[in-house]
Design goal:
The chain has one domain (24-192): Orthogonal Bundle (MetI-like fold), CATH 1.10.3720. 80% of the residues lie in helices and 0% in strands. It has helices at 2-13, 17-50, 56-66, 71-82, 97-133, 138-148, 150-165, 169-175, 185-195, 198-230. The longest helix is centred in the middle third of the chain and has 37 residues, at 97-133.
Length: 231
């Protein structure tokens, strides 16, 4: 155990190229998925928060249910869509970082949309009478609410990044875990552990946990800072 830990620390301290490649690809895929997920999820969540239409409650239930969508299910769906016999098979995206980004985006969008909906809906209930009094329409009110809730929404995006970074099932299915091309931290940990390379697995685990811890620390500090500044 101590020997494995020592080897893992040596890999971290020596900036092992395998480690750096895997971590770099993980950050690239997850951050790209987060950007797309934020651009899609926040407007969707904000719209559901202020919209008034038949079936809105059902949409909210479905959105909340999708937050717990198993990653392997997403992986299978993306795999079927990108396989040669699938509707997008001609694009040749299967077993590529792009396929992994698509899968992670599908996991991130419901989470960001659901959290955004709850945050904006709470603010909407508070400010709706004032908006109505000054004759502000729902689209304009939505933009104002998004701006007003921006610090809380940062927490939503960080939660989405954490979801993407810790995911393993979907990216394993659609990425193939190809060395030097589609191998990210979670899939590498699973593979290297099965191969007996516990030092690399532990080093990657340390990096992954450090990133997740940092995300939570940033989210906490943002909430505290916003509460003190804006009360």
């Amino acid at each position: 155990m101590l020997g494995t830990l020592s080897d893992a620390l040596w890999l971290l301290g020596s900036f092992d190229h395998r480690l750096l490649d895997i971590v770099g690809l993980s950050l690239y895929v997850s951050l790209f998925a987060l950007v797309i997920g934020t651009l899609l999820g926040m407007p969707l969540g904000a719209w559901l928060a202020v919209a008034n239409f038949p079936g809105r409650g059902l949409c909210n239930v479905i959105l909340n249910a999708l937050m717990g969508l198993p990653s392997v299910v997403v992986g299978v769906l993306v795999y079927l869509a990108l396989s040669r016999s699938g509707p997008l098979g001609g694009l040749g995206l299967l077993f590529s970082p792009t396929a992994m980004i698509i899968a992670q985006t599908m996991l991130v969008v419901p989470l960001i949309a659901a959290v955004t909906r709850q945050i904006v809906e709470d603010a909407w209930k508070e400010y709706a009478p004032e908006f109505s009094l000054i004759g502000l329409g729902r689209p304009q009110a939505t933009l104002l609410l998004l701006a007003d809730c921006r610090f809380s929404l940062i927490v939503a995006t960080l939660a989405g990044l954490g979801r993407a970074m810790s995911e393993v099932g979907a990216v394993m299915i659609v990425g193939g875990n190809i060395d030097g091309y589609t191998r990210v931290m979670t899939t590498a940990i699973a593979l290297e552990t099965s191969k007996g390379d516990l030092a690399l697995s532990m080093a990657l685990g340390v990096v992954l946990m450090a990133i997740i811890f940092l995300l939570n620390a940033v989210a906490y500090r943002v909430r505290i800072w916003a509460a003190r500044r804006y009360g």
